Amino acid sequence: MATPGVLIVETQGATDRTPLAAAPRRGVLRALLRRPAAALSLGCILVLVLMAVFAPVLSSLGGWSPYAFDPKAIDADLGGVPLGPLGGAGARHWFGVEPQSGRDIFARIVTGARVSITIAVLATALTTAIGVLMGMVAGYLGGVADQVISRLMDFLMAFPALIFMIALLSALPAGQRQYLLVVVLTFFGWPYTARIVRGQTLALKARDFVEAARSSGASDGAVVLREILPNLRGTILVLSTMSVPGFIGTEAGLSFLGIGVVPPTPSWGQMIAASVSWYTVDPWYFVIPGLFLFVTVLSFTVLGDHLKSVLDPGGNPS
Amino acid sequence: MIPYLLRRSGASVLVLFGITLLTFVVFFALSPDPAVTICGKTCTPDRIETIRGVLGLDQPFLTQYGHFLQGLFVGRRYGVGENAVQCAAPCLGFSFQTNQPVLQMIAARLPQTVTVAVGAAVLWLLVGVSGGLLGAIKRGTVWDKGAMLTALGGISLPNYFLALLLQYVLVVRLQVLPFPDSSIGLTQDPVGWFESYLMPWIVLAFGYASLYLRLTRDTVLDTLSENYVRTGRAKGLPRGLLLRRYALRPSMAPVVTLFGMDFAGLLAGALIAETVFGINGVGKLAADSIATNDQPVIMAVTLLAALLVVVGNMVVDVVYTLLDPRVRISQ
Amino acid sequence: MASRRSVRLTLTGLALLCSSALTLTACGGSGSSSTGTGTGSVSSSLSGTPVKGGTVEVLADANFSHLDPALGFDGGVNNFYRLIYRTLVTSSPGTKGATYEPDLATDLGTPSDDAKVWKFTLKDGITFQDGTPITSADVRFGVERTFDPALSAGSPYARTYLAGTKGYTGPFNGGKHLSSIETPDAKTIIFHLNQSVADFAAVTAQNTFVPLPAGKGGTTTYDKKPVASGPYQVDSYQPGSTLTLVRNPHFDPATDTVRKAYPDKFEWRFGIDDSTANERALADQGEDKNQAGVVVQPSSIARLSQPGVTGRTFQAPTTCTTYLGLNTTKGPLKKLAVRQAVSYAVDKKQVQTATGGSKKATIVSTMLPPTLAGHKDFDLYPSPDSSGDPAKAKQLLSEAGYPNGFTMTLDIRNLPAMQAQAEALQQSLLKAGITVKLNVIDSATYYEVIGTTSQQHDAAITGWCPDWPSGRSFLPPLFDGRTITSKGNSNLAQIDDPAINAAVDKVNATPSVEAANAGYGDLDELILKQAPVVPLNVENTVQVFGSNVTGVQSTPAFSGFPDLVLVGLKKVE
Q1: Looking at the DSSP assignment, which residues form a beta bridge with residue C102?
Q2: Tens digit of each residue's pLDDT (9 = 90 or more) over B230-274
Q3: HEC readout, C27-90
Q4: Testing the interface with C: which of B179, B282, B288 to mutate, by most C Cβ within 10 A?
């Protein structure tokens, strides 16, 4: 993750600008596919998701479970170094093996993808849901509700999230760690979404069609759901796309610090942490998860960039 | 302006109280008995009780919280009699594991963290903002594309990954830099000091610079396309003036906002850089204290970090007002 | 010359042996101080005689736990203490560390006939770092302050053996003296014990017998500003950053036969994480040429054969055993057959690899380490290549009524090496049908959890180092049923077997050292027949020193790690 530990949310430039157009979905997809970088990113993400979904199938194809040790693939007398060049990569182990345990890296990468993506997607879904709700309520209702929610957001954003997360996670028992991570990430993540949604809602509230709906007697709830929410579609799409890499990065960072998912469950961040002491002798153990992490985050970011420009034609091309 | 500031300060103080309370509650409820950790390995149940008495752990939660707040403002005493430890205000706690007031522990390490933070901030502002400006002005050219690509890489690369890579290449392989040593003072050995902090600065700044580059570029481009700028250009105003007076200043508003939050949040951010490079700063203190479960220190660092963020936000709000007249008018 | 006569420790005393409860890394210290026993390989360039002068650098991960001798009690800090503190008696240096020599005292003490009263006479010419002579009152003060609750985290032996100490809470807050410590004059000190302790001289080598200026300072003074009695004194201490030792100008080398004090200065650098320390040690640049030993990570073992590194490698076996404790009071583990099945199923080879391979650890089938006197060689649960015998395990399990195996929870410390060991165990036990769930516990609270009988789970991986090189400080604390306490328990298996308890009493009372040693070996076998634990391996300490360092000797006094008092530089620029 680029910003160490703190959730990244790309700011949208000025938050009081016109919300992104709620373009029809098919149009968006087609527009994206026309741009080579976006198409490539979409492709990468698709591969990644497939990898995550079919992880068990893929690892059995490779012939190894992510937890099985292979003592024949490592040299126990030399501290557990993988045998053979490229960190033991070959027909037997496609991406090589982990030092000391001899576990298949390919199996662990695909299983790790599953872990990382599940956590990130869940956290994104929850953060977006809560953030949008709170943002709309605060922006539309104003007054006391806005004050309360804004102060709550200030409070949560002021919290040194990383330190608190580390302290919290290391104090709690290790069971159900994955769900705990989602909860913790969501808890500190929703204000960023909410703040932007609130800004957009404020801008939309002043628009004519909202005025019209209100004066025609529609209830607050109906206005919010039928007039404001649909116009936030673009923003929501971009926000969630941009949140995913942040959560993946944060989860990897927490796993790197040793408080993410519990071993032997693989996680890319944890693999990078374990590879730190080995990178002079077995750099592939360091490079492979790092590369996957990099490409994943990059793909989502590029996609988010292009989404933003497709949905906001008045804005600036990337 | 003044009533606004007062209101904001009031709100900030409330937020800070809330944070102390929440932190206290969480650590109180979750942490395993600190007396046992302090007691050491040859613990007997009687000794644990004695230590709990000294620490005041046998008192109800609110009393303990009260003592803590009291310590913040007027100081407090731990234990009784000859062995009582006096902790002067602002008492951020007393670490029984290391027998030091926490404030002292933090103060000793603050210079290193400030060095890392300020150096990185200068670096990322310079690189990020000028890179973004360049990209906006020379939109579409090789400069622009190159800068954006690098920035993209910058935010996608995990910073611990970069840290390790840098250390391996520059120190182990090429041997152009020594292993960082944060005990070297600036006045003592400027060159050594610079060499030690260079890698942490680069690592910390890289991610932020990328973010700022993209942000600056987007914002400047946005502003350049605003009507009043277009009007100015149509009227024939010189390009330099246009950029500086009409485009740059308002563009800086979101950058400043983000910078205020980022700088204040750097304490947490520096944690990884300090840990990887062995810099004896507050971030590392936090990481080490969490590993040894030194509660008072963890709490104090959490509070300090929160304080910085809250103050940072306030400063940012004020500066934002000064920078963007539209905001000022709406106050 | 101290001979190791049998040390009659009471059972409660044994229960309080705490350095043993630390992991091997803590026992041996973080990468700096450590000496090993006897065999092992010390490169010849490291075995030379150092020259006087220069600064020795020590790279360490964590701070010292404490500078106050009443509080520090792990191998790393004990080794460091010997540079600045002296005790009545101390271990002989280096490889002879299993014996004792007089330090501040003129001899190893004069016991009464029943070994309950011990008299020591202090040497002449011994002073603190400010020149004040060390008197018996200072030694007494050092001992008495360890009774204060704030200062009793360290070695417990003074509290265990001295008579009439019930209710005594130290010389502060009232300032009463212990009647069991007499100081008839400035050079004489007499200890009255509550039992016969034939080897009390060895007890006075503990750091609770470090003298401090009588009546001066409170409970926190010496943790920040120690008052040295040894060849070095603390010049500056920045916790988390550096600690500098310089020569103590008032130290008289003529009064010390143990400490060579070659270097002029020692410089500790804290906060260097293990990987960086490894890189620095291998790179050997600048001041790192003078660094006194970094423990090698498994990843660096492959690089030890590089030219320029082989010549400065130190490898020595430790006297610390890593084992899997099985809670005999829980579930299926209550049955002997089940525990025996686990003993057969464990793939010790895999665990050895997880620990770092054959260079870093030696597989054992006994609890007493091979280099500890009294070690008896046997293997009650053999398997081909020590890789486990899942078939035999399954057979035993079905005989015991668990044909489909069972599930158990393993407590494991949140450290990469230990987690790797746990995962290896998990895999090997799975082959026998035993499902192992890992309960990862934060490093700081691990010992609290596994030492609390109500909180520990089915099994835990931990280590044990003897406080001094004897089977007596190894087996009874771990396996005597009468030492079980609800908190701070070392008998993780919670085994309380009358036969074992009786055997412990018998061997503890054996008067001759040789017979006692043999007795401990037999006791080891008797215990393992009950399979309360599965011994996994004994770690070697493998370290890389700076190219300009020599005088490195392994010492049994610190579980096999190099003795700091002998270390120095080859040449001074």
Answers
A1: C89
A2: 777 788 777 777 677 777 777 777 788 788 778 777 776 788 888
A3: HHCCCCCCCCCCCCEECHHHCCCCECCCEEEEECCCCCCCCCCCCCCCHHHHHHHHHHCCCCEE
A4: B179
For the ranges C122-136, C217-231, C340-354, the lowest mean pLDDT is seen at C217-231
Identify which of C534, C537, C538 has the alpha carbon closest to the alpha carbon of residue C346.
C534
C8-61: per-residue pLDDT in tens? 222 222 222 223 332 222 333 333 223 333 346 777 788 889 999 999 999 988
**SS3 (DSSP) at C534:** strand
Residue range C452-478, pLDDT digits in tens? 888 889 999 999 988 777 787 789 889
Count of CB atoms situated within 10 Å of the CB of C321: 27
B-chain residues near A166 (CB < 8 A): 286-287, 290
Closest by alpha carbon to B259, among B298, B209, B218?
B209
Token pair recorded at residue A191: 């204000």
What number is the average pLDDT over the span B143-162?
83
Give the helix/strand (H/E) hosting C412: strand C407-413
Q: Cβ–Cβ contacts within 10 Å for residue A26, how many?
A: 8
* Per-residue model confidence as pLDDT tens digits over C267-291: 999 878 788 888 889 988 888 999 9
Report how far residue A88's alpha carbon sits from residue A81's, in angstroms, rounded to the nearest whole number. Answer: 9
**Cβ-based neighbours of B263, under 8 Å, separated by 6 or more:** B117, B121, B312
Q: ipTM more than 0.90? A: no
* pLDDT top residue among C235 and A144: C235
Least confident of A196-210, B212-226, C23-37, C75-89: C23-37
Q: Do C354 and A281 count as a contact with CB atoms less than 8 A apart?
A: no
Q: Which residues of C touch A263 (CB under 8 A)?
A: 419, 422-423, 438, 440
d(CA C409, CA C406) in angstroms, rounded, equals: 10
Q: Please give the backbone phi and psi of residue C443, each rounded to the nearest 5 degrees, phi first.
A: -50, -45
- How far apart (Å, rounded) are the C-alpha atoms in residues C475 and C507? 11
The angle that helices B282-292 and B295-323 make with each other, rounded to 10 degrees, is 150
* C511 to chain A, closest Cα gap in Å: 43
List of chain C residues whose C-beta atoms are within 8 Å of the C-beta of residue B42: 16, 18, 73, 152-156, 488
- Whether residue A171 and residue C442 make contact (CB cut-off 8 A), yes or no, is yes
Q: Give the global pTM.
A: 0.79
Give me the total of CB pairs closer than 8 Å, taking one residue from chain B and one from chain C. 130
Report CB contact under 8 Å: B152, A302: yes
Domains and CATH numbers, chain B: 2-87 (no CATH), 102-330 (1.10.3720.10)
Instruction: Characterize the bridge pairing of strands C361-363 and A74-75.
Output: unpaired
Closest CA to C69 of C293, C239, C219: C219
Residue type, C407: T
Q: Are C512 and C289 in contact (CB under 8 A)?
A: no
CB-based contact B109 C240, cutoff 8 Å = yes
CB C550 within 8 A of CB C568: yes
At C357 the pLDDT is 87
Residue C448 and residue B41: Cβ atoms within 8 Å? no
Interface contact flag, C150 B288, Cβ < 8 Å: no
Task: Tell me the two tokens of residue C180.
Answer: 């069991």
Cα nearest neighbour of A291 on chain B: B157
Closest CA to C91 of C74, C108, C106: C108
The bridge status of strand C313-326 relative to strand C459-464 is antiparallel
Q: Would you put residue C59 in left (φ > 0), alpha (ψ -120 to 50) or beta?
A: beta
Chain B, residues 105-164, CB within 8 A of chain C, namely 105, 108-109
The DSSP bridge partners found for residue C236 are C244
